[in-house]
Structures are given as structure tokens and as C-alpha cells.
Amino acid sequence: MLRTQFEEELNKLHNQFYSMGTDVSAQLNKAIRAFTTRDVDLAEEVIEGDKEINKQEVELETKSFELIALQQPVSGDLRTIITVLKASSDLERMGDHVASIAGDVLKIGEDAESLNIEGDINTLGEKVKRIVDSALNAYVQEDAERAELIAKMDDEIDQMVTEIQDKALKAMEENPELVILGKEYLMTLMHLERVGDFAKNLCEWVIYLKHGELVEF
């Protein structure tokens, strides 16, 4: 494979990764909306869409291994391929948690009672989505400094999750009939927290891509 052709393949790999990331972000937006509005149809759409996310991850993995096997890339190129290979796995796991949020919607159903914290969950979801989108943009720009700042924003996610959990538990204490319902709310909070964690992982891979340094925030 000629060098120019190899560089074209690397660019395609970058673009495929970013496309997968934007799809995950769109899925997250739908899942949050489905949860806060009890939209079962939209939740089912998210679950179905997760199949495409999984497919994209397999395609990126296959293409990455092909480039390694056929081109024997030098260190800088190999770092790029490894970044895509590992970071796409994090995106796929994000997609799994997003699909699980949609699954929680189906478990709750359209007509169940409410813990009256949907607004808080919506705000949290928007915050998580901003971190995901910012991490993807840092990847495109190979902006390691920006990635480090974004990773630190995950602490805000964790704090918000704790505060909303407290509200959910209080509602369950005041009305024990809400305990089973509250379990699904708590699971959704956990899934959003995990999406934030994987967004932080993306930031770590941006730093690796730029500097070849493995860090852990």
C-alpha cells in the first residue's frame, strides 16, 4: 500500500470513528428524551439503533487490524490506529449504557407514577452529552489540553448523580410504593454516570494520540 493511500485509509478511520461518536451522542439525546417523557416508541428506537453502534465498532476494529497487518505502520501511525481501536470500544460501551436507559423506560412504562425528578435527570443528561460531544471535538482537533479540562468535568457529573440519587431515595422513603419504580430511576442515573466515565476515557485517549502518553484521570 502506497503511503498516500495509507494516509487516506487513516483519514477514513478517523472519520468513521467520529461518525460513530456522533451516532452515540444522538442515541444518548433520544434516550434522555425517552426517559423524561416516558416515550416507549422512542426507547425502542434507541434499543434498535444500538445494533448499528455495535456494527460500527466491529467495522472499526476490523479495519484497524487490517491496517496494522498490511502496512506495518511506524510508531506515530500505530498510535493513531491503537487510539481508534481502544476509543471505539469505549464508544460501544457508552452505546450499551444508553440502550440500557431506553430499557429502563420500557420497564417503567408510559403510565407509571413519577418521582418528580425528570427535570433533574434531563439536566444531568444534557451535561453528560456536552462532555461526550466535547471529548469527540477534542479528538478531532487532537487537543490534549482541552481533553484534560473536559475529563475533569466528570467530577461535576458524579456530584449531580449523587444529589439526584438523594432526591430519589427521599421520594422512595416518603412513599414506599415508589420503591420498585425508584430502582429504575437509580439504574438510569448509574448508566448516565458510566457514560460520563467513558467520555473521560476518550479524553485519556486524546492525550495518548497527541503525546503517546497513557494517563488516567
Secondary structure blueprint with pairings:
Layout: H1 3-37, H2 40-71, H3 75-108, H4 118-141, H5 144-152, H6 154-174, H7 179-211
Classify the secondary structure makeup into a structural class: mainly alpha
Please tally the β strands and state the result.
0
CATH topology heading: Methane Monooxygenase Hydroxylase, Chain G, domain 1
Please give the CATH class: Mainly Alpha
Task: Determine the fraction of residues in helical runs and give it as a percent range.
Answer: over 70%
Total number of helical segments?
A: 7
End-to-end Cα distance, whole Å, is 38 Å
Strand proportion, as a percent range, falls in under 5%
Give the C-alpha Rg. 19 Å
Shape designation: elongated
Q: Which superfamily, in CATH terms, is the homologous superfamily?
A: Phosphate transport system protein phou homolog 2, domain 2
What is the number of independent domains? 1
Name the average pLDDT: 93
Describe the sheet with the most strands. none
Poorly predicted residue ranges: none
